[in-house]
Write a structure and sequence with these properties.
Layout lengths: L1 H16 L10 H15 L13 H4 L6 H8 L8 H14 L2 H15 L3
Keywords: Signal
Length: about 120
Amino acid sequence: MRTSFLFALAAGTLASGLAGTPALAASCLEQIVALQARVDAVTPKQPAPPTAPQTVGAQLDHQPTASSMAAATGNLPPPVGPAAALNAAQNFQAAGDEAACLKAVNEARAMLEGK
């Protein structure tokens, strides 16, 4: 979902803002969008969590507890490698730190290229 949002945002930016301007260095967001497909291609897909039958408590309209929610979510491991660097780049971009964003994008690119 986030990937498609970033792609749409970058495509809109390119179509509206850069159509009549001379070639400039790509912004951090544009570089994130470009690298996201490469990261997705090399990142193994997580299997879908198993489903479970409905509990009696759920059938009786009981609200879930914090511990039952934690058990049901199956916490995913944090991203590593180029995915982690790209995640950091997205966070820096959202915070408006272009320099740190570009540094994280370059780290992700270097990891993808095996440097």
